[in-house]
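Internal QA ticket QA-208
Title: Verify multi-chain structure generation after dependency bump
Assignee: T.L.

Test input:
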Amino acid sequence: MTTAIQVIVDALSVGSLYALTALGIGLIFGIMRLINFAHGEFVMIGAYMLMAIVAQYEPLAIIVAMVLVVVLALFSERIAFRPVRNASPTTMLVTSFAVSYFLQYLFVMIYGARPKGFEFLAGLAEPFVIGTIRIPKLNVAIVAVTIVLLAGLALFLTRSRFGVQMRAAALNFRMARLLGVRADRVIAVAFALSGILAGVTAIFITVQGGTLSPGMGVQLALIGFVATIIGGMGSLIGAVLGGYFIGVVTVLLQFGLPLEMRPYREAFVFAAVILVLLARPQGLFRGAEARERV
Amino acid sequence: MTAANALATLGTDGVTVRFGGLAALEDLTLELARDEILGLIGPNGAGKSTLINVLSGFQPVAAGRVYADSRTLTGRRPHELSHLGIARTFQAVRLFAGLSVLENVAAGFSGRPVARRAARTRALEILDWIGLGAKAQAIAGTLPYGDERRVGIARALATGPAFLLLDEPAAGTNEEDIPSLMSMIARIRDEFDCGVLVVEHNMGLIMGLCSRVHVIDHGRTIAIGSPRAVQDDPEVRQAYLGEDEA
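Actual output:
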């Protein structure tokens, strides 16, 4: 019982981080059919910004890092992605790899390639103790913040003028433009939102991992991308559920695999992904109209 | 929307469109007035949809001019023309399938300075007017075909057009529902103060609704006139021989 609860909370918190990442990638993919692998670097840079500013004051570090990541997301859209907006999906994909590598090696240049230890919000590492159950406060915080973010995003997408425009643009970009939706603006809003999601992910990854390295975002972006595929590209709910799916599988493997096989956990995770895609090539929760835009 | 409200005519002047070596439209001149319902008919492949695409900016022209009053619109992009007050529907309706009917119509206000609540209210009014108020909350992808087309028209009306181009509005509509569709289109001109161009294969609808009919075949104009005059035109009869009843 005790273990079961701990595994569930673990799975939910790992799944939350993946879901936030998948959502950040899925938001942009939905609107412009761009798979933004640089999302991982948004997270990485957010983490380094926390470290750069933390000396002063932690809440301030969080705010400044979030703002910087959003600015970075908007800036990369303006500089790198807008010029290839109407190019083929392949060109956009290659552009996102270029942005991703550029940012990684920019940070290798500034901070060096070696991982840096960095303790942030150490209080969150302490557990809640309820009887025999010990649940890290961090995991509870991750799940709670994710729920708030998802609810906020859902409200934004359904209740705001921009949200409805974004959903319309994701379903049929050209038709949305025809009706007066401003392409530059909805795409910028999508990047800003994905920047916010990356910033929050950065905070939690930093607290959880305690080490930063320029390559730390690569694996995360890959998992986020895979989660959007499992969810069915083009469906935001699918991206979230895909993230939780991978999180749950990862934690169950961590818990269930024999000790000597745990280092190979990711191989089993991706094997599970392959099995899912063999069974449902369209993804588990494909959006109503995920076809490529024409 | 003052610009849109001021426009009185929309037309093409000697427009030619080629697909490869093939002329889809050849030196075609058509004019739509703000206060009329103009029927555009012709056999399959005559170039009707191409002409709608030209008027709405989806199809570049090889020669000729698109205009509204004295303004040249040739080469303008679809969303620019939409903003100027030229709205259209599509044969393949293209609703936002995952959005509600109300959200689809409200999205039509995206380019207009209308607050969200006001857009919703006015979208609901248009839906009521068009007879689909009861289905405002339905997901657009679940609608029957005929209703889909009406929502497509409602969404186009939400952009506040001076000219509305309807591409086969009766396709998929039961014969017994045609009269109500006809009276709806007739009221669009009067109540939304916009000129209507109708491309349609349903001759009953064209003849009963339009004040003027423009007939094209092989990308050229073969007749323009009242429904009766056009029906009696020998060249029109010739063009339709063996094709009309298909």
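Spot checks passed. Chain A has eleven helices and four strands.
Status: verified.
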